[in-house]
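Re: that backbone. Tokens:
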């Protein structure tokens, strides 16, 4: 059974940075493209960033391009999301998932809360 565990969220001031981690188990991690998504109350979960199986060709939602960086370490079964110059509108619960393009294809973990506030 595939399990995804996100961590690294927290409270940060505007302009600050956070790095999120997602550890995957129950799958051959290097076979899968991975992505990050986020959700705020009352809104649909939205795609944030994706990365191919061996770390090539990262791609981003327009809203975070140049601000967030996705990466992965296949030896650790982990995908990361480096978030810089954070804004209040980045406040959300962040989730990772297996992706096909920008579409999630696996089960969701518990997510990690990111709050950007002064």
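Recovered sequence:
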């Amino acid at each position: 059974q595939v399990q995804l565990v996100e961590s690294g969220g927290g409270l940060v001031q505007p302009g600050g940075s956070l790095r999120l981690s997602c550890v995957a188990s129950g799958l051959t991690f290097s076979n899968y493209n991975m992505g990050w998504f986020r959700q705020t109350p009352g809104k649909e979960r939205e795609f944030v960033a994706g990365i191919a199986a061996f770390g090539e060709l990262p791609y981003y939602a327009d809203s975070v391009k140049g601000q967030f960086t996705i990466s992965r370490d296949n030896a650790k079964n982990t995908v990361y999301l480096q978030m810089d110059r954070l804004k209040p509108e980045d406040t959300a619960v962040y989730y990772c998932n297996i992706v096909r393009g920008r579409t999630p294809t696996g089960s969701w973990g518990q997510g990690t809360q990111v709050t950007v506030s002064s």
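The longest strand covers residues 92-100. The two ends are 40 Å apart (CA to CA).
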